[in-house]
Fold this protein.
Amino acid sequence: DIQLTQSPSFVSASVGDRVTITCRASHGINIYLAWYQQKPGKAPKLLIYGASTLESGVPSRFSGSGSGTEFTLTISSLQPEDSATYYCEQVNAHPLTFGGGTKVGIK
Amino acid sequence: QVQLQQWGAGLLKPSETLSLTCAVYGGSFTTYHWGWIRQPPGKGLEWIGEIIHSGTTNYNPSLKSRVIISLDTSKNQFSLNLSSVTAADTAVYYCARRYSYGYEDWFDPWGQGTLVTVSS
């Protein structure tokens, strides 16, 4: 199985700050990676696919980059509504796997 | 606008079979994969498996011996059966549509989630 390791597991930042989340894959996955945002009690919401393609309707302050084994999700200017848990997911090979999640809080 | 609505029993006893159904509204059943993902309380996401419109299935090896995912194209529904449940199967279960074409691969939309609790 391809393991995805996210870091940090928790980050607290102020409104307007830049926040970066890292996702590392145990094997190379090209750009077969997606990012999701999940708020409490809700289903995950797709943010980015193909490592860097922004899903329609997602604010442009979200961006993704990387390929192979190292990926990042960046929120360029943190907003109160961005408080959530973020997950990466690899779709390179079965079984599909998710990272452990990064909880983003607002100071 | 495709919507997924899911339902099923929320409280099971150990050794019983979990059964959930997900209905697809407003979109085509073909072209896509139809999957199940679960999330134990306070924990991360785990892919359970999926079925392609052709009927081909893929399962997580960790659950494969207990899982069956099936499709009813006449009703635009797909279902999850997980047998011999234990407390470790307690989780919110989500159904989701997967689009898979090269690197364009994602789960969206998702169902609302169903909390399934296994307790004696």
Summary: Chain B has a mean pLDDT of 95.
